[in-house]
Amino acid sequence: MQDKVIIIDFGSQVTQLIARRIREAGVYSEIHPCTSDPAAIKAMNPGALVLSGGPSSVHDAGAPPLPKAYLEWGVPILGICYGMQILAHTLGGEVSRATDREYGPAVFSALGDCPLFDGVEHKDRLKVWMSHGDHVGRLPDGFSRIGSTGKVENAAMCDPARKIYAVQFHPEVAHTEQGARILSNFLFKIAGLKPGWSMSSFVDSSVKRLAEQVGDGKVVLGLSGGIDSTVAAVLLHRAIGKRLYCIFVDNGLLRMGEREEVIGFLREHFDLNMKCVDAQKIFLERLTGVDDPEKKRKIIGHTFIEVFDREAKAIEGVGFLGQGTLYPDVIESVSFKGPSAVIKSHHNVGGLPEHMNLKLVEPLRELFKDEVRKVAAELGMPENIIWRHPFPGPGLAIRVIGEITEPRLDILRHADMVVQQELRASGWYRKVWQGFAVLLPLKTVGVMGDDRTYEHVIALRIVDSLDAMTADWTRLPADILARMSSRIINEVKGVNRVVFDISSKPPSTIEWE
Description:
By secondary structure, the chain is α/β, with parallel strands linked by helices. The protein has helices spanning 15-24, 38-43, 82-90, 179-190, 199-214, 227-240, 258-270, 280-287, 293-313, 327-333, 369-378, 383-386, 406-426, 478-491, and strands at residues 4-9, 28-33, 48-51, 77-80, 95-110, 126-136, 144-149, 156-159, 164-167, 218-222, 244-250, 274-278, 318-322, 359-361, 434-448, 451-464, 472-473, 495-500.
């Protein structure tokens, strides 16, 4: 396999960004929790290690330690924030508690002639992003100071003989100028790695790996029409052809015309084995009277498995289950302190019933969302599929706030269709991560013509994001919002008010339920 970087996760909220930046430089990277067995990490034969930031102080009881084994292999190491502090602490330096936590922009000055900062412009006054409560006071033996800020004397350090480098700031975030250059210097000038990670190489290796994994077996895959399951299906189809069986379950919670669009496209362009199952009645019956969002998700998940299981058993000789699991799903299921608190149930990781007795096949398990889109382009998919906005597994059930009924679903479908049409017509569809309508569980007074009305409220949720881990509300031009509002109120029977959600994630989530 190509050169690989292992990121040891000490709990930073932006550890995924480190992996993304390294991959963008053309080097494959993986994230593993700091609780991992060092022997297992060594067996992966990494070309370099990166130690992430984290919320702990090295002085806290229970603070995650750095196994000394990582320092004994001779593998180049880059420590970031807590990664720098735990390096200093482990190697005999001194880490001091800061009187005030430093969070936000700082001006960094590189010192000496260090390869970590080769080619970095204005490196004597570089704008960087800090987020720390401790700082390194006395450096460990063998280390020298290679950078400072106005508040932190030892803001970067290195031991060139052991190829160990560390910075107090976060080069992975966009707020740090030329952070990508600093990371590239570590990868190529210090660690001597070679770029070999691309979506073209991924497609070739993935098809080969899938063919070997499945052998002469059969795979069944639940196809939603979203980019993840679609790309997974096409990769599997390339690997095993007609021995892939795709099942599309119409749960009655789809958007306007979605069933016809998905099935038509995939059959026409990729000649996939597809079966469409009309299960609207059973889903809607089981959701009757349910307004708790987590109960909705569980009912939908369990019912999907029941329907899918029945259809899968009807295919003779199936031994594998294909899923569109992405790398962020995998990371979140094995956080540095174990599984994260459940904000909402995820439908891809850990939801496979034992009685199905199928082996998992996950073609996209190594990829981030933006990489999936690049794979889709490599596979020749059209832009309207590649850039289709994410759609949640539970569908419109979590955008109809409160009880789900067919009339309420119809109102939302029509309102959402207007949102999609206006985003595309204005050229904003590709600019935003996600845009959709939400039906609220309340009515308000209005006036239409000379009549008083008492009708439903639609909320517009339009956000910018890179990977859905964080998101900010989109500053959509007022004239586009005005058109959406006017069309929804005039064209969607039963709606007399439209509101715009200006909440970011965190503290809010992208979806309302």
